[in-house]
Amino acid sequence: MAADSMAGVGAADRLSLPPQAISRRRAALGDRIYRACVLASVWLVLVLAAGLVAALCWESWEAIRAFGLRFLVTSHWDPVAGEFGALPFIYGTLLSSLLALLIAVPLSLGAAIFLAELAPAWIRPPVAFLIEMLAAVPSVVYGLWGIFVLVPWLRDWVQPALATTLGFLPLFQGPPYGIGMLAAGLILSIMVVPYITSVSREVLLAVPGSQREAALGLGATRWEATRIAVLRYGRSGLIGAILLGLGRALGETMAVTMVIGNRPEIAASLFAPGYTMASVLANEFTEATSDLYVSALVEIGLLLLVITVVVNGFARLLVWSVGGPARGGRE
Amino acid sequence: MTPAARRLVSDGVSGLTFAAALLVVCPLLLIFGFLLYQGASAINVDFFLHLPKPVGEAGGGVANAIVGSVIMIGLAVAIGLPVGILGGVYLAESRDRRLPWVLRFVADVLNGVPSIVFGIFAYTVVVLPMRRFSALAGGLALGLILVPIVLRTTEEMVRLVPSALREAGLGLGLPQWKVSLRIIIPAARAGIITGFMVALARIAGETAPLLFTALGNRFWHQGLDQPIAALPLQIYAYAIAPYDDWHRQAWAGALVLITLVFLASLAARLATRGRSVAR
To answer: Which of A83, A223, B3, B107 has the smallest number of Cβ neighbours within 10 A?
Structure first.
């Protein structure tokens, strides 16, 4: 009955309007729905980002209230006693990422310069493709390879060699377990190299050709042109690329968890086992029994989020400063 | 410096950068070589068709984990894909000043947020209220990871659609929504597929966000509100277990996973092979 009367109104409405007006009205309605859908998804993304921060703050409130700033500077992690200090994890995250950058930055910048400036044209696509594949390898596969190939190799060859040659440094002392900070740094460096390389390459490619031509025209060699004109022009973008790699390294979870040894201690030696913020989450979250324990873990997640957001935000602005925001969205 | 010395320096540096590129590619070959060497022997038909066997019994497979991964990826796509595509079209088409900049920045920053943090988020909004680990929570975590990737690639690809197409549509009196949905998105289809495949390759291998959302399961899937197995989770569990037979299975699982990921990445490349020509 109701449906009939509705149809009647619709028919009358249709009769009283010329056809163009109807199609225009329908178009306007369609446009309004479409705009609403698009804006809804835009706001959904923004609300989600805000929700991410809010949810983590909410869940970690108990730990924040219980420990305050002490959480960041004490190194006693004892779930049974309800004592939580995150310093060993912060230290492990920073040290392993730093180690990774130390190894990865020269290699990736070299590879990026090669790919963008110096390589013959035919060699660029296949190498760029291989590096893209390297970025696509899942973290857990790196971890598997780390446990069964990298760690034994470090234990049997690299660490004994380092201990005999550089053993007077505290960095290279202690028993060679294989697993530990050195393994974590190495596997992280392999993992961040493709990111830094591909973003740096994009930055270098975004440098205007006139820069190169000017330098070459003045008689510079290929390398001099690269150094004087291209690298200097793209400097802030390259720093951004390195920071993006740092962001990856800070948050990398599985591979590190599998090779770092997972012991919440601060040791000077790179041979010693360590722990990172991401790996403590991976290992202990499902086992956390008390509310305070879960809350402390979420607070570590919140810290990780804040650190990576700051590093990434800064990195993006630097990368955008060279190529504009439309570039560099996809690593 | 004499010109000869300068040329020598230039060649030397070129050689060094070449060596760096070689060193960068090396691990890929090493890893793939070991996967083939260790994994190929453990792969057989049983591996794809059977449930895991208890410790001590040889054989068994990861069929449940493969099914679980497919289910969660499906959920993630259902959650993340529409938002990502619509957001990307908005970024490419909007003439506003501030909102697109903010969205682009937020998406890029989200892209860099560690995946385990998305896991915590899914844990707090799904697992805690339901008081249970579930496929739904895992799918949500993966879906959130998918959004920024799809969003940014869609934007890039929609930008490549010639504006003459859009103008022609609008000039014929088509409403904006029809131009977007029936002309622009189909024209950018190949590129959007690329973005989708890149995102797929990324979430198929994600382990960390599933640890405390999907949790893993040694049996077939039992509903979306129950813990569910996933291939990366299974690889992780096998890798850190102390049994040789499980290690073999971990290698085999990793070989399967990486093959899927590479195929998706390859599809992503092939889909947009001729795109600069089409421009």
So the answer is: B3
